[in-house]
Design a protein that fits this description.
The protein is mostly helical and 149 residues long. It has helices spanning 7-17, 22-68, 75-148. The two termini are 14 Å apart. The relative contact order is 0.13.
Length: 149
């Protein structure tokens, strides 16, 4: 009579032979860490530039306020000082908002580039891992099938 194959033994042999590639996990971690480092660099540079703009804007505004608050000889000079301040403040606001917009635009472009690069890297890594695992699993399955016969 034919002997009934021991599928439990076959499964144990197959699982024991199943490849566990920790290097794939290490590579994925390294890729993620590199991505996080690059993304952090973009965010920190943007924060630094924004802080510089804010500090300069504040300093310029305080300088204009100091000019406006000086004692004047004629009452009409106060009106002129207030008008000059309002005009300068509006001009500074427009310039600084444009500078903030440039920073935001740069951050957006760099973030998109990072995301595309990360997606490409992850796709390549995943493809390589899947191909390797498929080849190894196919090899193990063939050995298990041959052993079951």
């Amino acid at each position: 009579m034919t002997k009934t194959p021991d599928f439990a033994k076959t499964m144990q042999d197959m699982m024991a032979s199943f490849p566990v590639d920790s290097s794939a996990m290490q590579n994925a971690f390294k890729t993620q860490a590199a991505f996080a480092e690059k993304f952090s660099k973009v965010a920190i540079e943007a924060a630094e530039k924004s802080t510089e703009i804010s500090a300069k804007w504040t300093k310029d505004t305080l300088s204009k306020v100091a000019d406006m608050s000086k004692a004047k000889a004629e009452p009409t000079d106060y009106t002129k000082a207030a008008t000059d301040f309002a005009s300068a403040a509006a001009e500074m606001a427009a310039e600084n908002m444009a500078a903030f917009a440039e920073i935001a635009k740069k951050v957006q472009m760099e973030t998109v580039e990072l995301m595309l690069a990360a997606g490409k890297d992850m796709s390549e890594d995943a493809t390589a891992v899947v191909k390797k695992a498929t080849a190894e699993v196919t090899s193990v399955a063939k050995k298990a099938a041959a052993a079951a016969k």
